[in-house]
Amino acid sequence: MSELKYQVNEKGYYGEFGGAYIPEMLYPNIDELRSEYLKIIGDPAFRTEFDQLLKDYVGRPTPLYEAKRLSDKYGAQIFLKREDLCHTGAHKVNNTIGQILLAQRLGKQKIIAETGAGQHGVATATVCALMGMECIVYMGKVDMERQRPNVERMKILGAKVVPATSGSQTLKDATNEAMRHWINNPSDTHYIIGSVVGPHPYPDMVARFQSVISEEMRIQLSEKTGSPRPDYIIACVGGGSNAAGAFYHYLDEPDVKLVAVEASGMGVSSGKSAATTKLGRSGVLHGSKTLLMQTEDGQVVEPYSISAGLDYPGIGPMHAHLFASGRGIFLDVTDEDAMQAGIELSRLEGIIPAIETAHALAVFDRLPLTSSDVVVVNLSGRGDKDLDTYIKWGKY
Ligand SMILES: *Cc1c(COP(=O)(O)O)cnc(C)c1O
Fold first, then answer.
1. What are the Tryptophan synthase beta chain-like PALP domain coordinates in residue numbering (predicted)?
2. Separation CA 361–CA 84 (nearest Å)
3. Could you tell me the domains of the chain?
């Protein structure tokens, strides 16, 4: 094998991005994780239990579906990796299953998590119920009002949802509260972060748990096309976990083009956007050095997207490196174009996608596709949770 240029290095960096920029009080927790995670994940007994749960509880492997009518329309062979068929409706549960098994092996009794729209909170509350562990989810007070059904789902599952009332009362404030809780309860609590963000080893750990997506893709593509390698893989990027999972086993195979799609909201220069690579600069966010949207003096800019899961002011360090190195192709899609692409998939294939995912479905005509190209779109989630947004948008 040639050198792995796009994987994390032993210091926790992807190129110049990554690392662990954390308050001293968190060193013991992060140090414990860093020294244990590879050993635990590499243990065959861990892998057996993880694989069994992914199969029987989550419903893996998820199908790789050839979307014939979509393929006809765009003149390429387009496959959909059906993460929308996972239990709880999206890829996020792959990571929460992995992390709760890891927490058990670290001897932790309690789980904390942060959530924005509530999707990661629900995936965390789900695995805590499964394992009989105590679960506290921090959520901005404003987000709790906007995402009532997910708050109730978490409560039904037995989780305690704690409102974050500082700042703008959204995701970053919830993250701060979760960090504070962890500092005060280091020995009995594991913090489940929901994307490939946060201090090392989180981005790598989450990417490894999500990498089952591209592991399955290689086998399924070989069966369906005769080669494990597609020409393009397309995924939406909030923090970047579904994209990291879909790209993972192709990172160092440069003939596979990796397309990351960010949300530009009302337009890149509208002031209401979440297109980090277009608007961001290098800085430290949630414990890692990465690209983030910030003011001249380094204040984090409040992001905007119609999809709550892409409404994040940064991207994970792996993606910052894919962008800076030119390995990844970064595109951005507005609310309007994403909504249209969501309706298009519904009409052509009978699949209503999550609005996050719809962003990834809006870029076919921006790529120089030919009829021999094999394209895989990571269908990160289903649209049930977004019905209200579709109804409000109304153009269908
Ligand atoms: C949360 C979410 C995302 C965005 O998160 P990533 O970490 O970037 O994958 C995308 N799609 C769906 C369906 C989600 O729930």
1. 59-381
2. 14
3. 13-54+92-206 (3.40.50.1100), 59-89+212-393 (3.40.50.1100)
